[in-house]
Amino acid sequence: MSALLQRRPYGAAVSLRNYGLIFAVISFGSWRFVAGACPGASRGGGLLFRLTMVLKFKRSVFDLRQAMKLKFPRSLRITAQILIALPLLSAVAGLILGPTVLHPFRHRLTLEQIAHADHIFSGLGAARVDFVVQAPDGVLLRGWKVRPGQPNGDWVLLLHGRSHNRYPMLSYAEFLLSAGYGVVLMDARAHGASGGSTSTYGFIERSDMRTIVDSLESSERVAHLFALGESMGAAVSLESAGSDPRIERVVAEGAFRNLREVTFDYAGLQQSAFLGKTVFRPAALVAVYIAQREAGVSFEDVSPEKAVALRSFPILLICGKSDRKIPCRHSEAIFHSAIGPKKLWLVPNTGHEKALNTSPLEFQHRVLDFLRTAACSPGQAGHPVPNPSPG
């Protein structure tokens, strides 16, 4: 080692301290240090503090590279450089993507989509009216309230996924209206025609849902109220029902167990949560850190898994077995945590939010059968029934 240090071509000797520091960063330090919360940093300057510390490693990394050129094989040098670069590059990706987590891309309804929806409603003898609700924070939530031609007195709240609007829920509305259910199709806050710029995946949206239900019940006779959600909408449905007993039953397809956990699936390029928890972990943790600071909420607390353990209410969980965006382990975790009546349908050869496309008749049969039992179930959520096995 002393001979190696003496041969160093550019000045002061490489110290053992620098070697220890670099190898500590490679082994575990950078994965959590670059992206995790720094206990010694203030809330306002935590991220800047961590980035400053990363820059302080630059000289040590350079020292290591120069020393390795003199002693180690080229393949080992390349491997070490990759191990150093990956977490740092991943953290930079998290810095870029972090601000977008709470601000999804907004798709507004087109005139063609509205005309198509009206054509379907007209064919069913249903009547659509605009439905505008003011959330407690003043944000205007916009959507449709659709009365069926032959109402059965029950209503279903239809909740769409991230970066969508009410239009993709039209195919669900179609078979529900045909069965006599009134439907409410709302654009979530920060989506479609609704106001707001921040989406919290259930933390604020639970309050939005209570306001929507208040407005619905003040204008319509509601015998039973249900919710059917896809992806983000599925999570919001479960979280809302966990705190509002007026929502008696929930159909949830592609729900995440909690917002922190699903971040690793997205960080893993929607291919592998293992990638998101290892190679791309810094990106996930930096993005979560930035979004949590902005929203003022812990992502672990945005949790359908916790919501179904708070109150006993019937749930029908649906997940495509080929879903890589939000894999079925999320639905399975929610299923195991639920304290009320529960069913889990794992749909073969089906991706994210695709069960109605791949198995339309079975989807409709399962959903309608699940909702119809509410009319003959005394107390609904207050009287659990034996839980079937997943399948």
What can you see in these coordinates?
The protein has 391 residues and is an alpha/beta fold. It has helices at 2-6, 16-33, 46-56, 58-71, 74-97, 111-123, 170-178, 205-219, 232-243, 259-267, 273-277, 281-295, 304-307, 328-337, 355-358, 360-372, and strands spanning 127-134, 140-147, 155-159, 182-186, 225-230, 249-253, 315-320, 342-347. It has two domains: 2-100; 111-257 and 302-376, Rossmann fold (3-Layer(aba) Sandwich). 46% of the residues lie in helices and 13% in strands. Strands 1-2-4-3-5-6-7-8 form an eight-stranded mixed beta sheet, with helices on both faces. The longest helix has 24 residues, at 74-97. The protein is globular, with a radius of gyration of 26 Å.
Short description:
With about 400 residues, this protein is an alpha/beta fold. It is built from 16 helices and eight strands. The N and C termini lie far apart (about 60 Å).
List keywords for this structure.
single chain; 391 residues; alpha/beta; Rossmann fold; 2 domains; 8-stranded mixed β-sheet; 16 helices; globular; disordered N terminus; disordered C terminus
β-sheet strand percentage: 5-15%
Determine the fraction of residues in helical runs and give it as a percent range: 40-55%
- The CATH architecture of the largest domain would be 3-Layer(aba) Sandwich
Number of strands: 8
* Uncertain regions spanning at least 5 consecutive residues: 1-45, 379-391
Number of helices: 16
What does the secondary structure layout of this molecule look like, with pairings?
Layout: H1 2-6, H2 16-33, H3 46-56, H4 58-71, H5 74-97, H6 111-123, E1 127-134, E2 140-147, E3 155-159, H7 170-178, E4 182-186, H8 205-219, E5 225-230, H9 232-243, E6 249-253, H10 259-267, H11 273-277, H12 281-295, H13 304-307, E7 315-320, H14 328-337, E8 342-347, H15 355-358, H16 360-372
Parallel strand pairs: 3-4, 3-5, 5-6, 6-7, 7-8
Antiparallel strand pairs: 1-2, 2-4
